[in-house]
Amino acid sequence: MAGDSGKWLKIVLAFSLAALIVLAPSPEGLTEAGKSSIGLLVLVVLLFGLEPVPLPAVALLIAIYQVALGLGDSTSVARSFMADAAFFIIGALMMAVPVTKQGIDRRIALQLLSRTGGDVRLLSVGLVTICALVGGFVADHTVTAVMLPVALSILRITEDSVNTDMDEMGRLLLFSIAYGATIGGIFTPSGGGRNVVMLGFLQDFYGVTIGYGEWMLYVLPVTLLLIPVTAAVLNVAFRPEVKDVPVALRTLQEEREEESWTKETWLTLVIFGSTVLLWITASDIFSLGIIALGGAFTFVLFGIVDWKDYQREVDWGVVFIYMGALSLGHVLFETGAAGWLAGEFTALLGTVGIGAGAPLAMAISGMTMAMTNFMSAGATATVVGPIALEMGTVSGVSPMFMGLVTAVSAAFGFLLVLATPPLAIIYSSGRIDTKDLVMAGVLLTLAAYAVLFLVVNTWWRFLGFTP
């Protein structure tokens, strides 16, 4: 009963604060719809943070709230849930199923373990490194979805060998994957939608074009520095129960000797590789989501998996969480709530004397990092980007400088499940709690902010790229 009373107290608190916002007079420049959207934002953040109900249920509430408060009819709200990004995460999660079924994840795990000697902390460093480097060219969703079964295989074997749960080790490995993929998505233009959004703004508004290699020249050092920093932060936040996993290494070696490369295994690699290649080369024609669904369908077509495999192995609750996050970002943007929040922040900066140069860029970066934890990175870049670029222009700051800082900062959503698809995917394992996100996320947010402006004030200055 005490647990039930605590649960209802959290629910009443969340709904009461949201109701106070909705019923309060609208501030100047904010519409009634925008105010209601901010109420939804507060409600969702509190329910996600306090977790009195399962997170997928909160995602469903996002739809109910919008229709109930007149922010959209059921059809328009449904459309906001089903963006191409939703298709992408569905397809990406499905495509991880045949990889696991054919044991490819265990082969990757063996390679990692062989090179680290079974040392858990070195394994964490290896996961961060691989996910970061691959994440620049393959979407972070995909990297995480593929590598998650690798970590889970190692965990299951280790837990079976010692007959106890490896909770801290699990958190260390899973966050290594998610955060590694996230920091990798910043160093190429193709690494994330936020980068594409910013490139479009710079080209359309200011006629500024950034080449693929030029983007890498400026941003790759951020990723390279964040790889050891991320590994260090995670090893401080989570202390694995064991130092090494020799049993997992031996088990995987023995299984590899027993397993042969079948026709289905090779076909899985061909289909998966072809899908990734299409993501890289043809996403502007077919979209990432449609290509992902095509890959998932092809696995069924060739009998690598059947539909029951997808039903059993895919966590559909995570799909709802991500779809809800897309819808939340959509309503904040469409009602002008996100723009109003950003505008209020810029006005606040003026009152404390921050109006130009690196301090302005640092302030915009901080605002972007805060907002990207509540909306998708692409939506954050869409909302903050035009304001940041215009503030830079008025203050004499290069649009390209401000644009790169904002795009990179939009990737640093480390605090909430709805911030990035990688966090939603590892949450689907059932081994991550929201308090774990806060513990690791706060440290990494501060570290990422410091690393970004270390690069800005050293490497960018050395290249002559200054505000």
Can I get a quick summary?
This protein has 467 residues and is mainly alpha-helical. It has helices spanning 2-23, 32-50, 55-68, 74-81, 84-101, 104-116, 120-135, 140-162, 167-184, 193-206, 212-237, 246-258, 263-286, 288-301, 307-313, 316-334, 337-351, 357-371, 377-394, 399-409, 421-427, 434-457, 459-462. The chain is built from 23 helices and no strands.
Order of helices and strands: HHHHHHHHHHHHHHHHHHHHHHH
Q: Compute the CA-based radius of gyration.
A: 22 Å
Care to count the β-strands? 0
Distance between the termini: 59 Å
- Which structural class is indicated by helix and strand composition? mainly alpha
Shape: globular
Mean pLDDT: 83
Q: What's the main sheet like?
A: none
Which bin fits the share of residues in helices? over 70%
Overview of this protein structure:
Among the domains are: about 1-80, no CATH class; about 85-315, no CATH class. The chain has 23 helices and no strands. The model has no long low-confidence stretch (mean pLDDT about 85). Helix 4 packs across helix 16, helix 9 (about 165-185) packs antiparallel against helix 11 (about 210-235) and helix 11 packs across helix 22. The chain starts with a helix and ends in a 5-residue tail after the last helix. With about 475 residues, it is mainly alpha-helical.
